[in-house]
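Supplementary Methods, section 5.1.

A reviewer requested that the exact input to the structure prediction be made available. We therefore reproduce it here, unchanged from the version used in the analyses.
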Amino acid sequence: MTFGKADQGTSRALGFAAGTHLDRRAASIFVTAPDGLTLHVRRYGSRVGSALPVVCLPGLARTAADFRPLAAALAAGPAKPRLVLALDYRGHGQSKYDAANPSNPVASTLIGSHHVVASLICP
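The structure derived from this sequence is encoded token-by-token as follows.
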């Protein structure tokens, strides 16, 4: 897994609510799935948060970017900060697409998502 640069250039207009701004500590993480494909995850907050982690799974044609305002708000919660992971499924967002093996995208997506969660939350 590799860690990307912290998100510094995101517009403040995407704030979840008035007065709420995106967490500047969000980072892109790239995880290699069991089949070798690179999957993108957006990480907000820290593993040492006081609340249970949240994993955001986008709709079929959506990406991790849909969760920016919500994930930032959850990760920075003053009472219970937590780790929030937003996944890009294979072929979506910044995750790679496997054109050589499109045989069972649902199974591949589930296996990849399980691998991401297992490697980032349950080391």
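Residues 105-120 form the longest helix (16 residues). These observations are discussed further in the main text.
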